[in-house]
Amino acid sequence: MKTKYIKSLPTIALLFIFSSTFGQTIVEGVIKNKENHPLESANILLRGTKYNAVSDANGKFSIDTHDKLPFGLIIVQEGYKTVQLEYTELPKKELQITLAIVNQLNDVVITSRRRIEKAQNVPIAVSVIGGRQAEIAGAFNVNRLKELTPSVQLYSSNPRNTTLNIRGLGSTFGLTNDGIDPGVGFYVDGVYYARPAATTLDFVDVDQIEVLRGPQGTLFGKNTTAGAFNVTTRKPSFTSGATFELSYGNYGFIQAKSSITGALSKKIAGRLSFSGTQRDGLLENAATGNSVNDLNNQGVRGQLLYKPTEGIGITLAADYTKQRPNGYAQVIAGVAPTLRDNYRQFNNIIADLGYKLPSTNPFDRKTDTDTPWRSNQDLGGASLNLEAKIGKGTLTSTSAYRFWNWDPSNDRDFTGLQVLKL
Fold first, then answer.
1. Please, what's the largest Cα pairwise distance for the chain?
2. pTM for the predicted model, two decimal places
3. What is the DSSP letter of 106?
4. What is each CA distance from 419 to 78, 185, 365, 415, 416, in whole angstroms?
5. Residue 209 near residue 189, CB atoms below 8 Å
6. Could you tell me if 397 and 386 are in contact, meaning their C-beta atoms sit under 8 angstroms apart?
7. What is the pLDDT along the chain (422 residues), one digit of tens a residue?
8. What is the bridge-based pairing of β-strands 241-248 and 295-309?
9. What does DSSP assign to residue 402?
10. CB contact at 8 A, 224 and 211
11. How far is CA 252 from the centre of its chain?
């Protein structure tokens, strides 16, 4: 009996050593909130691995580190701030982890009154769309952005004949007059874009878009009787960074956006941004076999920020955007009879001329116009913005030069007949 006991000692020793070694890889702890209440169902992840654990009703958990040193723990719980912990050795005591609540809303900061304020403190009906939110929604111009903003309407048959309205007020669609200011102002970094065609161009490196509803003449001038769009672009940063985004879709849609920023010296930072969008046409010209109403947009924006002192910032910006679409054609949705004599009805007129419409069903997306469609436009300019802190206030000065070139070609009878050319 004695001999048998002595022979068993090595086996027991090995089991003890193995158990001790295994036990040293287990980390235990308790997860609570700031009120010292245990949090159940918190997820504990071993960073860089597939291993995880879940806290019980008492907030307790245990997770095997699998001899991973150093190791990191990530604690995730809905409604609480995620915590990351780093360890170079196994903790000797039970971990006590406290999570902070993050269900409070972040403050929205706007510049609608020419100064930085919280949106909640501004007595203006304003909607704020963040640049990232617009990018996720695919709102790369005002026409797409209106789907995210209540009470905004955009009507456009071509860039020049474009109307931007808020609450149904602004300008009358179809009565374009280049000598009359629109009823909704469009501003980018404090610079007024006088032509409504600017709203058809792609956004380039936008940080935030504010839509102000109602008259804004006190701060924005006479051209804002119905409201204003206040667009803010991303500013140059002394911290180096770069972004690139590529999107694609049907009809050959492809869109690329890129931006790079960083310090050029101790007091000068720069930012260069690019945006390009292309898409095949949505209509077919039955006479030529080509697609019509495509997209072909490119835009670039460059900025230089000079900060001679902490309280002074001078920003020089320049941008250029061009559109070269084959558009904008329209289809025949149908022919309605009139009170004229029978020989003056449209169908009888085109029959006498030996002409037939390609389709009267708009969903066929067919046209046969005989005049090339062209809606070329170039928009650009430069601006100089100075911000200097003086006492408790800030002096802001904005100077800018803008240009817009419009080169159209239209078939205004929208048929294959040579009736009206412009």
1. 127
2. 0.70
3. P
4. 66, 37, 22, 8, 9
5. no
6. yes
7. 444 444 444 544 444 444 444 446 789 999 999 889 999 889 898 887 778 888 998 999 999 888 778 888 999 888 888 888 988 888 888 999 999 887 655 667 777 777 778 888 888 888 888 888 888 788 888 888 888 888 899 888 888 888 889 998 888 777 666 767 788 999 999 899 988 888 888 888 898 899 999 888 888 888 888 999 999 999 999 999 999 999 999 999 999 999 999 999 999 999 999 999 999 999 999 988 899 999 999 999 999 999 999 889 999 999 999 999 988 888 999 899 999 999 999 999 999 989 999 999 999 999 999 888 889 999 999 999 999 999 888 898 999 999 999 998 888 888 888 876 54
8. unpaired
9. E
10. no
11. 21
Could you give the CA distance from residue 27 to residue 64 in angstroms, rounded to a whole number? 6
| Cα distance between residue 205 and residue 368, in whole Å | 38
Strand runs (DSSP E) across 222-289, as ranges? 227-233, 241-248, 254-263, 268-279, 283-285
DSSP letter, residue 54: E
Alpha helices in 316-380 (DSSP H): 346-352
Using the 8-state DSSP alphabet, how is residue 195 labeled? S
**In sequence order, what are the beta bridge partners of 413?**
none
- Specify burial of residue 212 (Cβ count, 10 A radius: 0-12, 13-18, 19+): buried
Instruction: Give the span between the Cα atoms of 281 and 268, in whole angstroms.
Output: 43
The CB density around residue 67, as the number of other CB atoms within 10 Å, is 11
Amino acid 198 reads A
Residue whose token pair is 């329209």: 330
Q: For residues 422, 253, 232 and 181, what is the CA-based torsion angle, rounded to 10 degrees?
A: 20
> Residue type for 110, please?
I
